[in-house]
């Protein structure tokens, strides 16, 4: 693995590789490491760095473009899209995803709404407690 | 129109105990194709036909735009081929082999060859017969890689290699297609390698192509559904379903032409869909081959 590449693909992560790439690009933007106008690696370069197929990286970039996270200019490659509240918006989307996941797991485990709310409050209290220490 | 590095159309080749039947595939330039299939499926025969080492009985083969086997000399200058049964001279050193290639091929890239020697942990002054199987495989790959061919055809390049060596090879393969005019075709039993680095997948079994298309489309068509069904009922085979395994009230349905409507269709047939899972290439491989075996037995 090229150490210059900030990406790492996990083989034990069940998500397809293109989703892992999307997630990692978004994370770099969400934490503010990548800002508006920053260039992304070229598709073929990133594919070589990650040792994944070109088609996989292309799919990730197309998806990111469709979501308005990046913009691609022909011949100039891709850049982080100009959007100030992107970081917050991405975190917001992420929150929705995790909530959905939690609800789905709760349903599978037969946990009802009341119980789930109690567990959520408990978790929040526990984390706040930890913050204070 | 995308230019093609390899095109096979309706290729047939009959042997006494094996026949390649109507093999068609297309590899666009700048892409990596993985050829996958069980032992004896016809992978090596297909590769030999591409290289002009075996002549087809019928059908068209074009490699880098040249008709094969007619234009095999022109094609071989631009194509690098390595396979397990290609032997290096045991009594000679690796340097002797390097020198031979250096003198034959004008495109030989000496700095790259030296880089690969270090990266692969090979010593040029060693005699071939004194090195391990894995090192021999790496040596023969080095000899084709450093020619920087437009097309690289590799028959089982990672078989018998340790994980580190395998990754070195995969890294070289993926770095080749940073140049969109260069292409790679390789066969492998390692589904993980194929799933990860290939743009195109060609699945071959019993001398026939089962599927040949881009990897994402291919993988997207497969799903495994876990169903809970009313007691006494059996699971209907809806369109797109390859196989159903049912024990009591639990059924596992393998789908090879998935449509988003399918889980809903099962729900309305009275079943409860517990999970819709994507499948790895390894699971797809096994499902495909088991199905084709069943058909033969039936």
Describe, in short, the structure shown.
With 133 residues, chain A is mainly alpha-helical. Chain A is built from 5 helices and 2 strands, in the order αααββαα.
3D structure, described in words:
The complex is a heterodimer of chains A (133) and B (298). By secondary structure, chain A is mostly helical. Chain A has two domains: 17-80, Arc Repressor Mutant, subunit A (Orthogonal Bundle); 86-132, no CATH class. Helix content of chain A is 59%, strand content 6%. Chain A has a two-stranded antiparallel ribbon. In chain A, a hairpin with a 3-residue loop joins strand 1 and strand 2 (77-80). Chain A is elongated, with a radius of gyration of 18 Å. The mean pLDDT of chain A is 84. Chain B has 298 residues and is of the alpha/beta class. Chain B has two domains: 4-215, 3-Layer(aba) Sandwich (Rossmann fold); 223-278, no CATH class. In chain B, 34% of the residues lie in helices and 30% in strands. Chain B has helices spanning 43-50, 72-78, 94-104, 110-119, 133-145, 163-176, 191-197, 215-220, 262-268, 281-297; strands at residues 4-14, 19-28, 32-36, 58-63, 66-68, 79-83, 151-155, 183-187, 200-205, 208-214, 223-228, 241-247, 250-255, 272-278. In chain B, the strands form three sheets. In chain B, strands 6-7-8-3-9-10 form a six-stranded mixed sheet, sandwiched between helices. In chain B, helix 6 links the parallel strand 7 and strand 8 (183-187). The two termini of chain B are 43 Å apart. The model of chain B has no long low-confidence stretch (mean pLDDT 92). Chain A binds chain B through residues 11, 14, 16-18, 44-45, 47-48, 50-56, 59, and chain B through 30-32, 167, 170-171, 174-175, 177-180, 192, 196-199, 214-216, 219, 278.
Topology record:
The complex is a heterodimer of chains A (133) and B (298).
Chain A: H1 17-30, H2 43-50, H3 54-66, E1 70-73, E2 77-80, H4 86-109, H5 113-132
Antiparallel strand pairs in A: 1-2
Helix pairs in contact in A: 1-3, 1-4, 2-3
Chain B: E1 4-14, E2 19-28, E3 32-36, H1 43-50, E4 58-63, E5 66-68, H2 72-78, E6 79-83, H3 94-104, H4 110-119, H5 133-145, E7 151-155, H6 163-176, E8 183-187, H7 191-197, E9 200-205, E10 208-214, H8 215-220, E11 223-228, E12 241-247, E13 250-255, H9 262-268, E14 272-278, H10 281-297
Parallel strand pairs in B: 3-8, 3-9, 6-7, 7-8
Antiparallel strand pairs in B: 1-2, 1-4, 4-5, 9-10, 11-13, 11-14, 12-13
